[in-house]
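Bug report (template v2)

What were you trying to do?
Predict the complex of my protein with heme-A.

What happened?
Run completed; filing so the output is reviewed.

Input:
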Amino acid sequence: MAPFPLFPPEASTMAARVDALLFFLLGVTAFFVALVATLIVVFMVRYRRRAPDERPAAPHGSVPLEVGWTAVPLAIVMVIFFWGASIYASLRRPPDDALPIDVVGKQWMWKVQHLEGRREIDELHVPTGRPVKITMTSEDVIHGFYIPAFRIKQDAVPGRYTTTWFEATRPGTYDLFCSAYCGTLHSGMVGKVVVMEPRDYEAWLAGGGAVSAVDAGKALFEANGCPSCHRPDGTGRGPALVGLFGSRVALEGGTSVVADEGYLRESILNPQAKIVAGYQPVMPTFQGLLTEEDVMQLIAYIKSLAAPPAVRTER
Amino acid sequence: MPAEHVAPVRLYLAVFACLLGLTALTTAIAFADLGRLNTVIMLAIAVTKATLVALFFMHLWWNERLTRVAIGGALAWLLLLIGLTLADVLTRATLG
Amino acid sequence: MAELAPTVAHHFDDAEQQREAATFGMWVFLVTEVMFFGGLFTAYVAYRALYPDAFGHASNHLDVRLGTTNTAVLITSSLTMALAVRAAQVGEAPSRIVRWLAATMLLGATFLGIKLFEYGHKFHEGLVPGPAFTYTGPDARQAQLFFSLYFGMTGLHALHMVIGLALLGWLARQAIRGRFGPAFHTPIENCGLYWHFVDIVWIFLFPLLYLIGRH
Amino acid sequence: MEARAPAVHYLNVDYGVRSWLFTTDHKRIALLYLGTITLMFLIGGIFAVLIRLELLTPAGDLVSADTYNKLFTMHGIVMLFFFLIPSIPAVLGNFLVPMMIGARDLAFPRLNLLSWYIFVLGAAVSLWAMLTGGVDTGWTFYTPYSTSASVTKVIPTAVGIFISGFSSMLTGLNFIVTIHKMRAKGLTWFRLPLFIWAHYATSIIIMLGTPVIAITLLLVALERGFHLGIFDPALGGDPLLFQHLFWFYSHPAVYIMILPGMGVVSELIACFARRPIFGYGFVAASSLMIAVLGFLVWGHHMFTSGQSVYTAFVFSFLSMLVAIPSAVKVFNWTATLYRGSIAWDSPMLYALGFIGLFTMGGLTGLFLACLGVDVHVHDTYFIVAHFHYIMVGGTIMAYLGGIHFWWPKITGRMYPEPLAKAAGLIVFLGFNLTFFPQFILGYLGMPRRYHVYPPEFQALNVLSTAGASILGVGYLLPLCYLLWSLRYGPIASANPWGAAGLEWRTTSPPPTENFPTPPVVVRDAYDLDGVAAAPGEVAVG
Ligand code: HEA
Ligand code: HEA
Ligand code: CUA
Ligand SMILES: [Cu+2]
């Protein structure tokens, strides 16, 4: 039989935080279980029935006691809530400088696209000491992107992007699981996360020789005729996409929206949903013409179209 | 519960007239462009109509309080379901 | 949902308790009905909030005249239903009770007839979700969501109407036999509550599906 | 003194299959339910045994992946919808609610019978679907898997559950109306036994929640069968909307499963400690609090699903609050023992086992309600351990305790006490051995619904399977000796435990009308005045 661990490795900055909270919760649990169990056993023995016609006095109840054992658990759960919420808040807010990696889940494999070009299946290579932001979606049903050693998990939902992030701390190889039930080979939708020293990671990245996501996106951009409308100088029928990412876009109808990955995805697959102010709803949908991976590469390309600050403020 | 109430026919007719009037009104308003107000007014009219039916045709007005509590509870729960679901749907975009 | 029993059943103390139990029971049943439709209303509100334009466009494909007519028909049927209950309460002749019930049924059937006509129309226009959906507006996909909800909500409502009609038919039979009078009319009262409830559902469906987002 | 059975009681007023199939007597209907759900438990148990056997080794060597997926789905569906939800309410509740409030029957006896038929129909449809192909969506039916990817019998299974939902609504409706309208003279709300309070709260949840799961499953069936695209992401539909609707029912449903058990435990503790429950009013109110708060926390099943961060905070916060009324109950039960006169009869041992295991299960629920930790343990064996602790360690313990406690009332026979104690002990030990290792597995990261798993998880899985076999023996034991007692058990007296409830103030088994004369209540619940000092006789007064 294989060696059997009782505790998972801690391999991300988040792991230690989650584990600290776990130990607090274990302490609370142990305390109350022990308290209740001890009291029950002691009372059972101490007050066991000695004569068949024994008649103990009826309890009178006690409001202070009731208030007490409402207030103490209340205080404890508030600690638990805020502690847990603070971890969750960090988990859901990736650092700005995080290394972006795209992941597409599909029955039953994980497809990974590194910005610089390497693609892998059921493997994920990441460097230590650098936050990594995973943007994910699914081509079919819901999958769950789960790395126990990092204590992170996020469902990949068809039709939209979800994100998670981590910063690996220890080189090694860790499990990658699909946690959300997705059909026959759900339990086979597993992979490995290989955490490397930054140097090794750079070397690994360079080793693939594939085109980068940005270049692939640029090729798709041209192949699908986008430039016929989206010219860099904004003279086409569609708006210029330079500097779009991260800026605030004014929409038809007076509202506005921040151009994040989700907005870009929607603009390509469902262009009529949000119309940029001052433009006609003439852009055709590319739903069905592009795969989820294509869309992710297009977005990588659009994101790379950084603009001089002047253009940005103009938007 | 107090003895069962028999409502006068005139009351029923009045309620009926109100309901028809409100129906006409709401349809008319649909064709005027009042922006967001359109939806608000139409929902307000629907709520009014439903209340009229419930109070008079369904005798809620004369019923014991328990029935009002029951149906009020159901409406509160429905709003809860819609409200919390909508809270998620509407604030999801600002993730991150 | 009432137990039909002209005399006091063995487990009740008196007729008063029996009647109270039946009426309260009916209202509790309506609570479940509210939540039952509630699931659909939640879906509707969520999608309307997500895709206001698509839903607005799609709703323009519904016929307001037919919708308004149907609303009026249903409201009138509620009136006749209320009068049927009243007739039983005050002890009018069975024939008069039956007359109001028959009027209610006729109006209910008219509603369903109009609805069926509308459905047929949608079918020809290719607005039925699924492979036959041929809508080609700017947001055809979300429009399909709208029509899914349209058919889901009105279909479920129509199903309730059909059940209501069956109940009314049964009531009419009982009424002819002179079963209802001032002393006992719980079934007619409870079916009335059901009928009015179905009317109320429509009162909401009408603006939500036909009106909002028009012009 | 030798107890004598009454000459005529509800079991022998009438004979023959028809007298059972057309009965409107709530007590007989309770027994119809008892038979049906016991069968369901055995079926669900067989699925569990197969699951545990498959997981004995890391490789998928016993059954294929598809079969495994069907096994845990059908295990979950059968155990929840066809066993645990009806278990205490439809059996003990049906039998006891009218008796405890001094009524002759439930308000709508024919609807009550109808509810059983509907239940049987729903179960039959679902079982038929399972036998002719099975279903593999998980008991949660998540879309889009259930609507588009699965190739199994999703529609008939969902329809079966849809149908059985009406059965639980009819039961809930009956309870609510009966408790409101049919209490004996003098039985005010604050004299009601806590069992009644618990069932009242449960019924409220049933009435408000069950319709939503009904419509949700209907929509799944329509989307699958008729392309009505409500949740379809390809149309811009939102898979999370399904999850909202599903959990709006299914989280409150867990309280449908636990509240009646808490009601049973309150009765057992009051009887075997011989004193009213400490803080009666608080325990009663906490049931209602659970019913209300329980509806506000459903999103805690969706912390990693991509729901809005803000609603996640809200749901987590409210989930913390819902733990408080449960804590209040546990502390009040414990305080009741203090200075009581505690008899170590088997029902009491089950009740005390309930408190311990429920505390454990409930506190691990806090791990899950806690956002930071749930992200890691969501969809792992930690969840599996949490809910088995509450549902198997909690509710089933309470259910067994209740069955033992009221067995003499239901059947007029006593069961063999030493065997009952042994069974309780075996269940307790087997249970912990089965499910405790799963907490560790979960934190290690073993995902649930896994047919094969990495070899380093094997040791703990072997422990779990070993425990399950002990547990199985523990469950089969009562089945045997309770059946045995029907014929050979000693005749039970009217009030063998010296309990205070109204149900003990009539013969065992009771007559069809429950009481020879309508009882009039003059005392609070659990007040033993007027109950014969030594157990055995019908009390006067
Ligand atoms: C009867 C069933 C039952 C009950 C009663 C509960 C009760 C609780 N459950 Fe559980 N739960 C399930 C059945 C149940 N659960 C099931 C079936 C699932 C999985 C569904 C699936 O995905 O398949 C689940 C999943 C589940 C999740 C989702 C996890 C995930 O998927 O990621 C969460 C998250 O918050 C949760 C929380 C809770 C909480 C906070 C309680 C609370 O009500 C518990 C309250 C009790 C106590 C707290 C113990 C008593 C207290 C004391 C002795 C005093 C000390 C107290 C304090 C310090 C507060 N449960
Ligand atoms: C009331 C609810 C209930 C009950 C009682 C149980 C009881 C048991 N459960 Fe269950 N379980 C669930 C509800 C329940 N479960 C749910 C909701 C799920 C989630 C499903 C999902 O993911 O969708 C689940 C999932 C689940 C899993 C996870 C599967 C997975 O995720 O891959 C496991 C694994 O160990 C498990 C084990 C057990 C065991 C060992 C028992 C034991 O307690 C069973 C003991 C009983 C017996 C052993 C029966 C005795 C009978 C016999 C031995 C048969 C003899 C036959 C004849 C005489 C005819 N259950
Ligand atoms: Cu993919 Cu599970
Ligand atoms: Cu829950």
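What did the reviewer find?
The first helix of chain D runs from residue 17 to 21. Chain D touches chain C at residues 98, 103-111, 169, 173, 176-178, 180-182, 207-212, 214-216, 219, 222-223, 226-230, 234-238, 241, 244-245, 513, 518 (CB under 8 Å).
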